[in-house]
Amino acid sequence: MMSENESNPNEFTVQGFSDLPHLQFPLFITFLSVYLIIIFSNLLIFTSIVLFSHLHTPMYIFLCNLSVIDISYSSTILPKLLAMLLTQCKSISFLECFIQVYFFMCFACTEVLLLAAMAYDRYVAICHPLHYSILMNPKHCARLVLAVWVMGLLDPVAHAILIANFSYCRSHHIDHFFCDLTPLLKLTCSDTFTIEIWNYIDGALLTVSAFILTLISYVFIISTILNIQSASVRHKAFSTCASHMTCIIIYYGTMICLYMRPTSMYSPGEDKFFALLYIILIPMLNPLLYTLKNKDFKNVFKKINKTLFGSELYFKDVQ
User: Fold this and answer.
1) For position 151, which CATH number holds?
2) Alpha carbon distances (Å) from 199 to 153, 157, 260
3) Partners of 92 in the beta sheet?
4) Fewest CB within 10 A of the end CB: N or C in the chain?
């Protein structure tokens, strides 16, 4: 019979990228560079929105929160991964592992809800522009943001409690580069039926509901834009939501590939690939998607550049 310590380990070992021993240091440099880009770019957006009062509108308040989420869930995974690549120490404590699981799921849920709130904001702005200041007043916007964070923080609690009380007797080796739900379920000898059913119910209630709300918002948005007679106005209206649509397609595409399938279909190689897209690509792309063609941010960056360097030369060609 397996002892208590063997079935409930003090620590796990994480596979990481051990199958590529000659690439450990190049991977460390790559992930460190990407992490610094994520932190810097999202902090720049966050700071710009906080400091410049003309950006204190619902759209930018939601974007400010998106930057916080992107920094947070990347910081849940990448610092530990960087430490593993640098030191070659692959162990992670039981407590640290489940804290990582909880916060990763927490920020993922929060982002799903925030993207739905942002879609609703674009729906009101494009389909009901005359009522925008009433429907998206500061109090309403604050309530939406608060609801997003509260639901995001509470939703993964049941998952975290269930998996923390499982017995891990098959192995203590996680075939992934961080503690994620599916790899942990592959290690347990406990019955996973309850948590898998809960995962699908929760996915239907939260993720699918948020996706349907987002989809409905964009059906009305696209229908309204197509009915606009002026080509320039139509292009301007579409450009205000194009970045958000791109973000949604990438986000939901990777999420569906990662989590909307049975544990029996788990493939370590595929999961690592999609997890990298989810953890690295999305937080790195979001700042570019939302600022590259945004006139307000271009003007803010001009002011920052002029303040720091006394010149607007860098932005002269960006109109």
Assistant:
1) 1.20.1070.10
2) 16, 12, 9
3) 12
4) N
Q: List Cα–Cα distances, 299 to 28, 148, 285, 291, in angstroms.
A: 35, 30, 20, 11
Q: Which residue has the tokens 């409690």?
A: 161
Count structural domains, the chain: 1
Closest CA relative to residue 110, chosen from 71, 155, 158: 155
In a domain, 6, yes or no: no
> What phi and psi values does residue 87 have, to the nearest 5 degrees?
-95, -15
Whether residue 4 is contained in a domain is answered as: no
Report field, pTM of the whole predicted structure over 0.90: no
User: What is the tens place of the pLDDT at every residue in 198-249?
Assistant: 877 887 788 888 888 998 998 999 888 888 887 777 777 777 777 778 888 8
- What are 73-95's pLDDT values in tens digits? 899 999 999 999 988 888 999 88
| Sign of the alpha-carbon torsion through 83, 85, 91, 95 | positive
Residue 176 CA to residue 174 CA, distance in Å, equals 6
Task: Please indicate, yes or no, if residue 3 is contained in any of the structural domains.
Answer: no
Residue 72: which domain range? 11-315
Q: Please give the angle made by the CA atoms of 173, 177 and 178, to the nearest 5 degrees.
A: 85
Give the model confidence (pLDDT) of 273-284 as tens digits. 778 887 888 888
Are 148 and 117 a contacting pair, CB within 8 Å?
Answer: yes
Q: How many CB atoms within 10 Å of residue 264?
A: 7
Start-to-end C-alpha separation, the chain: 71
CA 19 – CA 200 distance, rounded (Å): 32
The answer as to whether 81 is a domain residue is: yes
